[in-house]
Amino acid sequence: MRGRDERRGSGTPGRWPAVAARAASLARSGTRSWIRSSPGTHIWLLVIGITSLVIAAASQDLETFLLHRTSSNIHQLTKHPLQSLLISGFWIENPSSFLLYAALFEVLHANVERWIGTARWLFTVGFAHVAATLISQEIVQLSIEDHSLPRSMKRVVDIGVSYGLAAAAGILTYRIPRPWRWACLAGVLLFFALPLLTGGTFTDVGHAIAVAIGLGFRQFTHGRPAWDFARVPEALRRAAAAVTPGPVSRRDAPGP
């Protein structure tokens, strides 16, 4: 009995390196497949990573110049409308937030792009970014004329990717199967509406517009399957089976 246990235990140490190597190989393959299936998301994320490094390495004066020069505020929209609308979507104000944005890109943008295709995803988030920016800045302009906001708001820093993320959150709601979809929809609406009900800023208005645009593009999801949560346990079992090697044969087993 003791000899049988020793022979059984002697094969265990050699098994875990094989499991780790197999898991690493599957992870690399899965990562490559994920990136290839959502190229727009990861190209966009790469550019944001580069611009974040530029901001992090810049002096205070240069940082201030870059943030204002690339903003889609009233001043820049008046002087360089197309340029400011495009460039403002590739910068974030705080480089330390890059990892958070990277996670949001993977959860929202990558899933939407994989689901409805790169062209439809790009049109949705691009349209939302432009429309939310123009409408929110028009509200700023009207508030300045009404003396509700100071004239300095014409040069406020207005950059970032949050309008596109809001649109992606809106359209991704349709991938949630019923009845969970309604709870998800209520959560999304509450998340973006609550700031407006508690004295939101022009940016909060832009977020609300962007998520409404994402929800309004439901036709882009027609014919696209929703997630099937019932298949998750089986998918996990298949993944575990792919990582774990089969039983060791008597010929390969160590020991006498």
What does this structure look like?
The chain crosses the membrane at residues 42-59, 115-135, 156-174. This protein is mainly α and 256 residues long. The protein is globular. The chain has helices at 2-10, 12-37, 39-57, 60-69, 74-79, 81-87, 98-116, 118-145, 162-172, 180-197, 202-216, 232-243. It has a single domain (38-243), classed as Rhomboid-like (Rhomboid-like fold), CATH 1.20.1540.
Can you name the CATH architecture? Up-down Bundle
Spell out the CATH superfamily.
Rhomboid-like
Total count of helical runs of at least 4 residues: 12
**Topology pattern, helix = H, strand = E:** HHHHHHHHHHHH
Distance between the termini: 14 Å
Whole-angstrom Rg: 25 Å
pLDDT below 50 for ≥5 consecutive residues: which ranges?
Answer: 1-11, 248-256
* Proportion of helical residues: over 70%
What is the CATH domain class?
Answer: Mainly Alpha
Please state the overall shape, judged from the principal axes of the Cα atoms.
globular
- Give the number of domains: 1
Strand content: under 5%
Structural class category: mainly alpha
Tell me the major beta sheet.
none
CATH topology: Rhomboid-like fold
Mean pLDDT: 84
Counted beta strands: 0
Transmembrane segments: 42-59, 115-135, 156-174
Pfam family, one: Rhomboid_2
Protein name: Membrane protein
Keywords: Membrane, Transmembrane, Transmembrane helix
